[in-house]
Amino acid sequence: MDRWRKIFENVVQQVDEIGGGGAGVTDADDQNQNQTQLAATEPGFDFKVESGEVIVDYQNLSSIRVNYYEIDIELLFSRNPFVQNFSGGFSFIKPNHSDVIELAAARNSHKFTLPDELKSRNVLVEVVGAGQTQTRAYYSHALAVQVIQKYGQVQVLQAKSRNPLGTVYVKVYAQLKDGSVKFYKDGYTDLRGRFDYASLSTGDLQSVVKFSLLISSEGNGSMVREAMPPLR
């Protein structure tokens, strides 16, 4: 029976693809199979930046261009506190550093380190390939941050020593129930490294959906962390 034969041929094809073979079409009239084969031949990529390394997962790409832009984290945070992958406006700026990375055809993942001169900076990493552009922000810091949601507090520690950091600047924006975003409060951590990000003398907390916190230390770098309001 043709219908059952095509079903089993499709199963065999999928098993072959799972084992590392390419996507194929066993029934030319099956739109889903045709779409799957086209998707398998389309170039694409995704990437992340962790601990000074860029990891790119890709398919059907031979090379990418990587651009690096030094960023003013506080300025970008104030403009867009709930968007950490900043991209607007950078296409008009000359990058601080740019590389072309060759990708091996036999692999689907590639790892490389940030340029030495940028490892200790806050940078926007932009990867361009096959007509696509993606960006990720990388924050160089030595901070360990603990959010105590139940009490609306954040504690800032030095990452290696785990000692609390006092006088660390914290700037807080709030996203409200109506979708708007507003500056909420700012201040400095106390000697225990603690800062109350939620309390205000007004009743604004009742309309807050979530917070975004910029945590900035002179000697230990900066980072952005989202936090939820205390449970009510």
Strand order of the largest sheet: 4-3-6-7
Show unreliable segments.
Answer: none
CATH topology of the largest domain: Immunoglobulin-like
* Topology, number of strands: 14
The helical percent reads 10-25%
Terminal Cα span: 63 Å
Portion in beta strands:
35-45%
In short:
By secondary structure, the chain is an alpha+beta fold.
Describe, in plain words, how this protein is organized in 3D.
- By secondary structure, the protein is an alpha+beta fold.
- The protein folds into 2 domains: 44-138, Immunoglobulin-like, CATH 2.60.40; 143-227, Transthyretin/hydroxyisourate hydrolase domain (Immunoglobulin-like).
- Helices cover 15% and strands 41% of the residues.
- The chain contains 3 helices and 14 strands.
- It has helices at 2-18, 31-41, 73-79, and strands at 44-50, 53-59, 63-70, 97-102, 109-113, 123-129, 132-138, 143-148, 153-158, 169-176, 181-188, 194-196, 208-217, 221-227.
- A 4-stranded antiparallel β-sheet has the order 4-3-6-7, with no helix packed on it. A 4-stranded antiparallel β-sheet has the order 11-10-13-14, covered by helices on one side. It has a 3-stranded antiparallel β-sheet with strand order 1-2-5, with no helix packed on it.
- The chain starts with a helix and ends in a 5-residue tail after the last strand.
Structural topology:
Blueprint: H1 2-18, H2 31-41, E1 44-50, E2 53-59, E3 63-70, H3 73-79, E4 97-102, E5 109-113, E6 123-129, E7 132-138, E8 143-148, E9 153-158, E10 169-176, E11 181-188, E12 194-196, E13 208-217, E14 221-227
Antiparallel strand pairs: 1-2, 2-5, 3-4, 3-6, 6-7, 8-9, 9-12, 10-11, 10-13, 13-14
